[in-house]
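REVIEWER CHECKLIST
Item 1: Sequence provided? yes
Item 2: Single chain? yes
Item 3: Sequence as submitted:
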Amino acid sequence: MRQVENARTDVKICGWHDRDGFVVIRPSSRQHPYPASEDDLARPILTHAANCARIHLSARPLLLFSVCLLVFGGDFCICIFDRAGARVSPKLNMWHDLETFIRVVRSMTHHLSDVDMGHDPSVTLAPAALWTSTDQPAWIINRVGPDTRRWCTVGAPIWSSLSLFGRGTFVWYVREVSAASDELRGPVMILKSAWRESERDAESHIYEAVKGSHPGLAKYVAGADVVTSPSGTEKITTHHLRPRSPAPDETTKVLHRIVLGSVGRPIWEYDTEEQLIDGLISAIEAHKFLRDQKILHRDISAGNVLLADYPKELGAAGFISDFDLAFVDPSDAERKSAGIVETASERGHYCQTLRGPATRTQNRSGTQRGDIITVWTLHPHPLISPLVTHPYLRGRCNSCHDVCCKPSITKRPRCRLQLTTWSLSSGS
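Item 4: Structure as written out by the authors:
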């Protein structure tokens, strides 16, 4: 059967990137998605749908959420997955509520707009003349914070997150779009979108808090939380996607976007050992530059130390990127006015790391982690199996219950989904 299907060249094989939504069907009404209590683990149909939503959001990087129709026996409901959890509608019966069922199906397949189905309202489709290929559309990002320039994506994302409830990071090559002629101009840059916790400093604030510059740091161009429209001020958050207002002390996830002028590749793609060592030295010097300013990166890893594609223009063979987890000492007034905040635990960690005696904690947070990166880069394969099977890492995965803990898309995620409900009105 597969050979016959492949022989039909007129049939287009659709992937997840072609889907606006999806349907999960189970034969029995007892296979519903509703847990018996808030303490129960999510039921199999819901975790299966969550795994599908994880793949859907990974294949469609501009979706803020994924819409799913769950059918179990003669009953059905709608489930919406975003970076904060799942929203499940009350159960309805497709025979007793036939009109509502037809309205739901027609809305998902015909009437709802792209934004209604989860597309980011701050991004628009670029003219066909700006596409690099017919298979990969280009997208226009109208503005990033106070920077009024427009940016156009080039090709497919160079990094696509596979997690559902993590930061959901996506990285693109972009170029500036001329305001006069709608043509691309300037060098290729990097655009990164990620969901940050509302109580954590924005990555753009970390870059703006750095005094001076260093060639071993990714060159910051622009950054800000994403708003719903170019002229609007309302930020895109997971609470914004829900029909209720958050409590004053309730945290949320905020979509954040930055543009960087430094373009590089992973350090394990080095050409010579000299290039690798030069890149690591640049990163270590940049790390010391930050540490002297009481800034901790706190996420030095092989994926966040890059080799520069254009070392002469950058002035360094490598550089550090990804400041999502960085911490800045906000003691000085200038940084406080920039919006840098801290928590008691962060303050304690900062004092222990920067002001305390040399301890194992200090070594792990300092430049000695460069030794681990070097070993991992030179010998990647022998270290993969021991790291994955280490009891400590297995314990973290089992306690995390996140969909992204295991890379296999066939394993049912063991996660406690945050569920909310709303009404399906027959008049909508």
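Item 5: Key structural point noted by reviewer: Residues 1-8, 343-368, 379-428 have pLDDT under 50 and may be disordered.
Item 6: Recommendation: ____
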